[in-house]
Amino acid sequence: MIRTSHEFLGDEVACSGPPRACVVPVPIELSTSYIKGTGKAPAALLNASRQIESYNPSVDIDLKGAGIVTLDGGLETKNELIDFISSNRETLASVFTCFLGGEHSITPWILEAMDYGEIGIVWLDAHADLRREYLGDTESHACAARNSLSFGNIVEIGVRSYSIDEKRFIDESDDVEVFNRWGIDAKHAVEKLPARVYLSLDFDGIDPSVIRAVGTPEPGGLNWDDLIDILSWLFSMKTVVGMDAVELCPVPNDDASDFIAARAVYEAISRALAVEVK
Question: What's the predicted TM-score (pTM) here?
């Protein structure tokens, strides 16, 4: 059973017409290998989002009445996620949809079920996630990018941790390019992707001085201005067909991480709707 609400940002984003954006909580946590708790992230993100102003001055858009709905299908397993998307694909594909994880293993499952056609993938992450298997699990969060390559070439940005086997794979592959910073080389790589792209935002791609509550924090990540520049540039240069935001790991007494993560999702949705208006 699907529960429709306006949990993301609150009732003021409701509209009388059809929705223009959907937020789908996906509290799946099956393979986290260090700090546990990503399954609690969607609820924390939704709760924090209701403290954000509807007007976004960075893109001069007011999301009041914008038609943003939250669709909660109680998704806790891969099969439940795929069945939910398959049953609601037409609705989810007709608007800008953001899936709130949960762990990063959900991304290839989303791409499989959404069946976007020809796309590229922009992957913001501290980790390459290009392992063939991790701890015997080929569908681990550590394999998420590797498992997503069958749906499109990937440009990874913010990566500063990977295994030697992943390094060899990166060096030998024509399908993935990896950058530890956001700059001209990363921009050129994204430019080479198809016109339609999917965005996967792992919150540990952002420096822990900005968002601390993640499953595996790595120093030296993207700062807030980097993230905003990436989002502004990406939504102006490409058609972003959808996104996920994953790997927040809420902890007591760190409401700031929840709020900033929710703000990152808000910034992406704001830009998606601002482009639609133009």
Answer: 0.96
